[in-house]
Amino acid sequence: MAMQYNRIFNFSAGPSMLPVPVLERCRDEMLNYRGSGMSVMEMSHRSKVFEEIAVNAGRGYLIDEDALLRGLESGRVRAAGLDVYAAEPTANSALTSHPRVTCTPHIGAAAAEAQQRVGAELVSIIDEIFA
């Protein structure tokens, strides 16, 4: 049975734009990432499990995109989450279209879903004012 959440939509950048099932999976794996018995925050950055994780939401130049793609193709890197790239907009379609790469806009409010939510909220506010 799905849990009901009283959600407030934050139209800023970041994880506020993630769907509830994704947030629930993150919650579940926070204490026990992939059955390792540890959270990602507890495990050694030299461990095999940790090496499978690549997330870059800071600066694009921090990740060698070609090396990341090679790691994904070889299986050494299990998945990657990116919202910044070495050059923006990125032309690296092999990386951004890879099935184990999740790409989000660096500005979460720029996502189509966020714009739709803002539009619906504005209409609701205007309706209240002029009702």
Number of helical stretches of at least 4 residues: 5
Task: Please give the alpha-carbon distance between the first and last residues.
Answer: 38 Å
User: How is the biggest beta sheet arranged?
Assistant: 3 strands, parallel
CATH first level of the domain at 22-106: Alpha Beta
Q: Give the strand line-up of the largest sheet.
A: 1-2-3
Name the CATH superfamily assignment of the domain at 22-106. Answer: NAD(P)-binding Rossmann-like Domain
What general form does the structure show? flat
CATH architecture classification of the domain at 22-106: 3-Layer(aba) Sandwich
Report the mean per-residue pLDDT as an integer. 76
Q: Based on DSSP secondary structure assignment, what is the total number of beta strands?
A: 3
Radius of gyration: 18 Å
Return the structural class: mainly alpha
Query: Any low-confidence stretches, pLDDT <50, length ≥5?
Result: none
Family: Belongs to the D-isomer specific 2-hydroxyacid dehydrogenase family.
Organism: Yanshouia hominis
Domain D-isomer specific 2-hydroxyacid dehydrogenase NAD-binding: 53-108
Protein name: D-isomer specific 2-hydroxyacid dehydrogenase NAD-binding domain-containing protein
